[in-house]
Amino acid sequence: MTGRGVTGRPPSRRRLPWRLVRRLPGLLILCGAAVLASFLASRALPGDPVMLMVDGGAADPEMVRRLREDAGLDRPLAAQFLSYALALLRGDLGQSLRYGGVPVTELVGEALPVTLGLLAGAAALALPAGLALGLAAAGGRRSWPGTALTIGSVLALSVPPLALATWLMLAGSGTAPWAVAALALPAAAIVARLTHTLVTDVLGRDFIRTAQAKGLGRAAVLMRHALPNALVPLTAGIGSVTGTILTTTAAVEAVFALPGIGRLTVQAVLARDHPVAGAAVLVFVLMQVAVSLTAELLIGLADPRLRDGGKAP
C-alpha cells in the first residue's frame, strides 16, 4: 500500500485545503469581531480628540463644530461604525487627528516593517534557544537540568516586560539587537518549559522504553522518537508564545524608541487619535489571527491524521 487514494494522489493534498475552507467562516467572524473591537477601543479613549486638536477652550465653537462634522464624530455610534467598516473594505483607515490629516495607512505602513522585523528576530532567537534548552533539560540523566530550567524560566517570566526592556536598553545603549533580546528572553523561557514538559511526558511512554531496549542512544531517542511525538502540542504552544511576543512589543518599542506599531499605538492612545488607535489595534488582532492560522496549518502538516481529515487525540 502506498497510502494513496483512488485518485492516485496523497490524501493530504486533497484534504488539507478543505480544512482551510472550513476555517474561513470562523476567520471571517473573528475578523469582524476584530474590526468592532478596534472601533470600540478607539472610541473608548477618554477626552475629546477635536478639542485636543484645537487647544481646548481657546477654539472657536464654529470651528469645533466643522471639525467634528469632518471627522464624523457628530453622527450616532452605529453610523460611525458602519462608515468605518465600509472604509476598511476600501482599504481606507481614515486620517490621523494628531498628524493633521496624514492617512493612517501611511503611518501604519511605516511602522509595520519595524514591528515585523522585531517579531521575526525574536522568533528566530527564542524558538531554537527554547527548544535546545528544553530538550537538554528533558534529556538529562539527572534532575538538575530540569530544576535549573524551571528556576531560570520563572525568573525570566517574573520580570515585567517594561523593566526587562529598560535593563537591556541600559546594558546595550539602546541598540536594536537588545530590543530583540527583550522580546525573545521571555518567549524562549516559555518554549523551553513547554518543550521540557511535553518531551518528558513522551519519554515515559512504553514505545520509548522499547526504543531504549533496542540500544538507541539518548540523543537518538530524543530526536527520532520523543520530539516528533511532542511536535503537535508543541506547535500549538509556540503559536501562543508568538502571541505573547506580540503583547510585549508596545513596551519594548516605547523603551527603545523604535517607530513600530506598538509605539504608534501608545502615542495614539495618549493623543486620543481615534483613527490611528483603532487601526493599530486592528493590525495587532489580525497579526494574531495570522499567527493562529499558521500554527494550525503547521499542526495539520505535522499530524497525518489531521491532513487526512481526522482529528487529533
UniProtKB/TrEMBL annotation:
The chain crosses the membrane at residues 20-41, 114-136, 148-170, 176-195, 231-256, 276-301. Keywords: Cell membrane, Membrane, Transmembrane, Transmembrane helix, Transport. It is found in: Cell membrane. Residues 112-295 form the ABC transmembrane type-1 domain. CDD domains: TM_PBP2. GO terms for biological process: transmembrane transport. PROSITE patterns: ABC_TM1 (PS50928). It is a multi-pass membrane protein. The keyword Magnesium does not apply. GO terms for cellular component: plasma membrane. Belongs to the binding-protein-dependent transport system permease family. This is ABC transporter permease. It comes from Roseomonas genomospecies 6.
